[in-house]
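Q: Hi! First time doing this. I have a protein sequence and I read that you can turn it into a structure. Is that right? Here it is:
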Amino acid sequence: MILIQIKRMDGTKESSAFKCVPERLTLGVTRILENMPGVVDVRLVQREPAEKRSLLSWEQKNNCILPEDLRDFYLTTDGFTLTWNVKLDNECVPLGCMTIRSVGRLQPLLQPTQVFSLPNAPSLADLDWEESSAECGLANASTPPHFDSRSRVFELDSCGGNGKVCLAYKNSTPGAVAQQSEIWFLDRSLCWHFLSATFSSYYRLMITHLGLPEWQYSFTPYGPSPQAKWASLYQPLTSRHEFSLNHSAGDSHLNKLDPIKAFKAKAMVTTPKKKPSAPCSLPSNAKSQGSSGRSGVVKR
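A: Yes, that's right. Below is the predicted 3D structure, encoded as structure tokens:
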């Protein structure tokens, strides 16, 4: 294990033989963090690449095929941890944390029942019913994983106790090799929330959100807790499609704009300005008569 300190507390950069490694692993986010005001002590823990036999052993043990992008990630580094702090009132406060468990710690979410557990003790499988997706706000989304044998779920990140990011193999058959996987977030109320279809997409999401506390709750209907919202000061500008086009008709709280009515050309009724009154002009014959008369007066 190699600890690469990107930036020290005093602001000086540390030389390292692996100077290009953080740039490749973090997609350049370390430079962004270095330039953010108040951010100090950016630390990247780099691990040696995992051996191919370790990946094959994991697949044989769990009867699952690792996704190709996750396999390539483990062949680059056996796990990933990047943390950064902020300086508040001359005190260093931990804030950002990005973590991907090593392949050796990629354990199933549902551990086997212990021998000394009570015979009628409830388990997560007892909470799994068909209506659970509707209660968690996933009635119109992708089918969430199950807690029973229908799914095989492995924990990628414990999220500091605020939930779990999981690699989920849905619709798995007992005895058959599971191949298709997705990334899901299990919140503290045991509701599933879809994050991404591939590990690469989830990795980019984690980097984009800078590993801020409870950033995964941005993909839930209720969002992060009030205690974690202060960290949005360091949140970069991100965009996400929050509302489906199929539900736009029922969203009464949305401000609907009709471009035809909004930008329709309207004839502007202008009030004519009053012009100053001018002396009445006489006809040409009257003018000639008047001029002749005046001329006659002058002759007299």
